[in-house]
Amino acid sequence: GRLASWSGYGAGVRSPGWYHHLFTTADEVVPRWLVDAAGVLRGEGVPTSSAHVIEATRLAETLAVLRGRPHPGLSEVTEATRAVLCEGDDMRLELVQRKVVVGEELGGVPDETPSVPLVRDVAAAQKSLRMPPQALITDIDLDLRKPMDLGRSRLLHRLRLLGVEWGRPQERKGKGTFWESWQLAWRPEFSVDLIAASAYGTTVEEAATAKVTEMVVDADLPALTGLVEACLLAELPGAQPRVLRALDERAAIDTDVVHLMAAIPALARTLRYGDVRGTSVVDLAPVITGLVTRVRLGLPAAFSNVDEAAAKGLVDVLDRVHESVRLLTDLLPLRDGWLETLRALLDRPDLPGLLAGRLTRLLRDEGALDFAETEMRLARVLTVGVPAAKAASFVEGFVGTGGLLLVHDEALLRLVDTWLSRLPDDAFTAVLPLLRRTFAVFAGPERRAIGERVRHLGSPTKRVSQVDDLDLERVAVVMPTLKLLLGAKNG
């Protein structure tokens, strides 16, 4: 692709892959070309048979005869490919153009060519891990429980620290923390980047360690938390103590509570799932404990005189910290103190409606507020005396992105419905954009379910108790598992 004219290469041509084929194929140039194109399509799941290739060859040769040419050229072959192999689909033709007409070949140098030690170390690692560099974009899944895949992950993370983006991490859902997904694509300039990075060391591990140590000097608190996670993923035991020491020093002098809160989630993930890679992360425990303590002390001041715009950002970071504290419940004694801090903030009169609603929801989910108190606080806010805008913000913070809460909690749904029904016309018009934004984040089925529940709120419902029909012996078998799932204590 670097020899193509569209890449900016002044002496380039439009179809370097085609000319490479012409100069390297001794006979049957057109059929062999079309076989390669068919192979590309078949590799992408497009049904392409030998009959397609035969008919495309005949069409290309016929077009050459009609145009008075002695042999089919690229234009005839391209039109035959579009009509027969691609069946007129321009997307398929674009795939053939990129992979065959232009090509994705990579050059190379002999093994005996002198090179810097870091380049040789990377080449040796690629060979031992069976990861040859390719220009093609390739997606791979790594199982970190396997030594080979763990080594591949370690190499990719170390190269990223050196500025060599050979692999880009991809999101993966549903496979647990033992899996990683990557998208690989080797570019020729990576060889130049490796030569520049050789100033940090002769091996990948040594160079990555030196690079991280240099980055620590000017890194702020959020960047340091990212470096801590990077050291774990790249397995750099030589750099981790220096990063942790710098993190502790920055946290001690940083007075921005939002910075402190933003630093916690990455560290919590590292502490929680660090054992997946077999790396010791015990040194993170006191750092996280200190950060959470500083956040608890600084939250009252951070929540003072906050407008609605700033409250939105605080809600997002508050959710992430709360989830981190929950993640570490069985590792560090942070939960009780964190909930005490949130409970103390809840009764402040200057708290914006969005934050008040979110705090109420978090405390309710954790059992720190019972149903009666939650209902009382909601009823107190959703009254005529409270400004409609503040009440709508409270509802937005309380409901968040969980529409199922309104589906299953009829008392809460009735409160919201009653409040909306009693709003004057001008007040309803004023809060409508905010309410629309709140409900727009719900999934379609959730919105439909809420509508169905609202439709039947006024109709009497008959509740039938069937306790007498239960088989108590079968119930006794289920109860221990049910208590475990619900977190119920004995008695």
Summarize it.
The protein is mostly helical.
Can you walk me through this structure?
The chain has 23 helices and 3 strands. It is mainly α and 491 residues long. A 3-stranded antiparallel β-sheet has the order 1-3-2, covered by helices on one side. Strand 2 and strand 3 form a beta hairpin. Helix 12 packs parallel to helix 14 and helix 15 packs antiparallel against helix 16. The longest helix is centred in the middle third of the chain and has 20 residues. About 1% of the residues have low confidence.
Mean pLDDT: 83
Number of strands: 3
Indicate the low-confidence ranges by residue numbers: 462-466
- What is the succession of H and E elements? HHHHHHEHEEHHHHHHHHHHHHHHHH
Strand content: under 5%
User: Span between N and C termini?
Assistant: 71 Å
Side-by-side strand order of the widest sheet: 1-3-2
Helix content: 55-70%
**Total DSSP helices:** 23
CA radius of gyration: 31 Å
Describe the biggest sheet?
3 strands, antiparallel
Shape: extended
The assigned structural class equals: mainly alpha
